[in-house]
Amino acid sequence: MRGHTFCWHRSLPDWVHQTVTPKNAEAVLTAHISTVASHYRGLISAWDVVNEAIQLEDGQPDGLRNSFWYQMLGPRYLDIAFKAAHKADPDALLCYNDYGLEKDTHYGESKRTAVLALLRGLKQRGILIHGLGIQSHLRAGDTFGPGLSHFILAVRDMGLSIHITELDVDDSHFTGSIADRDGSVAATYKRYLDVVLATRSVSTVITWGVWDSPHVAGATASNGPLAQRALAFGPRGEVKPASRVIAHCFENAQTQKDARF
């Protein structure tokens, strides 16, 4: 089971904003992580310790998001969070998790560069981190280039594992039939999984749900239409094109792995 997440810029309770100050922020953050991680110790195999710490548009050094914890503690909140997580659950894999890393666009490349710098900085400071979570909220029709493979391999070469953590395919912009949606969603899954699994460096693939229901996919604006056919199975758990494509991608990756031995 994967745990998500100790430290995020959203969904903070009101009392945090009302009572936490730069003087007590480290103690509050540490206590929160220690309490949750200790409660689930031995049950969670991996934690997303910090989620979405990069926001290039905020204009902060190293591309860091100007989040609540950044405002209270500066960039050292990352170190505090990872240290607290390891102390509370020494056997769990500790990951950094983020979105917007999947496409070979200018934004995607810039964010990859910032994430690599974040990971490198943690390791250089002696902070224990085991892996990177790539959220993978895709949009139907997306294509993926060699930069994604190079990025995954660069993370692997740091000694970190790579986890696909929130995989779905947003079809909210489609107006066609269910068959058209399913075809485009399945093709997008295939293009993405073919690239990431070919690196032979991805240890985990987790979808953002199991079966379809109208929901806000990761790439969908909160005031926009809902995704309808974004996940691996239909609304009653029925097999659909995405189901078969995902299974085929896993089988093909396993066949390639077996052929190496």
From TrEMBL:
EC number: 3.2.1.8
Reaction(s) catalysed by this chain's protein: Endohydrolysis of (1->4)-beta-D-xylosidic linkages in xylans
Gene Ontology BP annotations: xylan catabolic process
Keyword Transferase in record: no
Keyword field contains S-adenosyl-L-methionine: no
Membrane-spanning segments: none
Highest taxon in the source lineage: Bacteria
Family annotation (InterPro entries): GH, GH10, GH10_dom
Domain GH10 stretches: 1-249
Keywords: Carbohydrate metabolism, Glycosidase, Hydrolase, Polysaccharide degradation, Signal, Xylan degradation
GO molecular function: endo-1,4-beta-xylanase activity
Pfam family of the protein (one): Glyco_hydro_10
Record family assignment: Belongs to the glycosyl hydrolase 10 (cellulase F) family.
This protein's name: Beta-xylanase
